[in-house]
Amino acid sequence: MEHSLSIIERDIVIIGAGAAGLTGATELRKAGLTVAVLEARDRVGGRLHTDDIDGAMLEIGGQWVSPDQDALKETIAELGLETFARYREGESVYINAAGERTRFQGEIFPVSADTEREMVALIATLDELVSEMDPDRPWAHPRAVELDQISFRRWLEEATDDQEARDNISLFIAGAMLTKPAHAFSTLQALLMAASAGSFSNLVDADFILDERVVGGLQRVPILLAENLGDDVFLGQAARTVRWGDAGVTVLTDDLEVRARRVIVAVPPVLYTRISFDPPLPRRQQMMHQHLSMGFVIKVHAVYETPFWREDGLSGTAFSPYELSHEAYDNTNFEDPRGTLVGFVSDEAADGVFTVSAEERKQAILTSLSHYFGEKALTPVVYYESDWGTEEWTRGAYAASFDLGGLARFGADLRTPVGPIFFSCSDLAGKGYQHVDGAIRMGRETAAEIVAGLGA
What we know:
By secondary structure, the protein is α/β, with parallel strands linked by helices. The protein folds into 3 domains: 6-46 and 219-281 and 418-454, 3-Layer(bba) Sandwich (FAD/NAD(P)-binding domain), CATH 3.50.50.60; 50-66 and 83-88 and 209-213 and 296-390, Alpha-Beta Complex (Polyamine Oxidase, Chain A, domain 2), CATH 3.90.660.10; 112-204, Guanine Nucleotide Dissociation Inhibitor, domain 1. The protein contains 16 helices and 24 strands. It has helices at 19-30, 70-78, 113-131, 144-148, 152-159, 163-178, 187-195, 200-204, 206-209, 220-229, 283-290, 308-311, 347-353, 358-373, 406-410, 436-454, and strands spanning 6-9, 12-15, 35-38, 50-53, 56-59, 64-65, 83-85, 91-95, 101-104, 212-214, 233-234, 241-245, 248-252, 256-260, 262-265, 276-278, 292-294, 297-304, 314-319, 327-330, 339-346, 382-387, 400-402, 421-423. The strands form 6 sheets. A 7-stranded mixed beta sheet has the order 9-8-19-20-21-18-22. Substrate binds at residue 344. GO terms for molecular function: oxidoreductase activity.
C-alpha cells in the first residue's frame, strides 16, 4: 500500500527549529506571511538543549550570554526570561607545562614576565588585525588572501619564539572556540572568531564572553519561540528532498509535503548533504560546502553536593593548554545549593579520550579537574558528557569553520540565496558567529531579505 503524504501549503517553509529557524519564522509571521518549521529531532533548539540528568538540570549545549549580544538579549527580554550572573568571585587557576598550579586574578595568566610580555604583544597585534575586519565581510580584510593561506599555528610560530605564549594564545581560539587544532584553520578564520566577539581582547576575557545565563536554561529561548508559533512547528520531520524552481519550492519529509514560495535551510552546513536538492545546488555551493567542517569538543558536567571550591576562595575558573580539560568554570544553577563545574576537552584530546572505556574517560577527565580544584573534584554526585559529535543532526561542536583558504575563496557566497532557497544559521553569521546571538541575527536578516524580495 502506497504511503500518502499530507500536503501543506505555506508562504515560507523553514528547515530546522534552532534559534535561527525559529527567529526567522517568528519575523516572517510578524510580516503577515504563513510558515511551517520542520525539525528532524523530537525537540526544538538544535544546539541548545537543557535536560534533567540524574536529578540535575544540565545545559548540554550553548548557555552563556555576553554583554555585546544585543540580538540575544533583546529576544530574552521579549520572551520575559530572567538572567543571572555566572559565579566568578575569588581566584582563578592556571597550570603550566611543568604541571605547576598557580592561583591568579585578572585576565592574563600567571606566567613569567617575558611570556606575559609576549602574550600582551600578541593580543595587541591580533586586536589590530581584527580592527581592520568587518565580521560580516571577513574576505574583504586588506590581507584576507594572505592570512587565509597560513595556519594560525604557523602565524603564532612566526610571531614569537615563546612556546608558552603561543600555547596560551592558541588556547583561546583553537581549544576554546573553533575546537580544531591550530594547524587546521587559517589565521583569517581565527580573526573572524575574534571579530565576531568585538576583539581578541574580548575572547581572552572570560568575564565578558561568559557573563550571564538564563534562569531555567538557554533552551527556554527556542522553546518559547516555538510555543508562540504553535502548530506551525512540526517535530520528527527530517527534510529529505527540496524541489525548487521559479514557481517556488516543495519540501518532502517522510510524512509531509510542504509547498511554499521560499525555503530557509536553517541547519548547520555539514547537514546540507542530508537533503536531496532537485535540481542539485549550483557548482559554487557544492564546492563551498565541502570546505566547511565542524570542530569537536566534549562539554563535561560534574555536579557536587556543594560548590566546595568557593570555600577555598576559588572562582571555579581554570585554564591550561597542557591539561586534558583545557578550561573549567563554575556552572552552578540559579539558587541551587549543589555546585556544578563544567570542563571542556577539545579537538585531538577529545579524539583520544574516546579510544578508552567510558569509565577510564571519566576518571581521566575528573583527574584533570582535580589538578585545578583538588581531590574533591574526583567524586561528583552527577557526571555527564555532552558529546555533540555523536548527534546525527549536528555532527560536532561548536560550529562549522572553513579549512585553509576556504574563507577568502568562498566566504562571500556563504549566505547567498539560490533561487528560492535561503541559508541561515549561527555557522554563517558574522557578528555573533557560532553563538546563539549570531543565529538570531541570521534569522532576522534572512526573514527581512525574504520579506523585501516578496514585497510583503
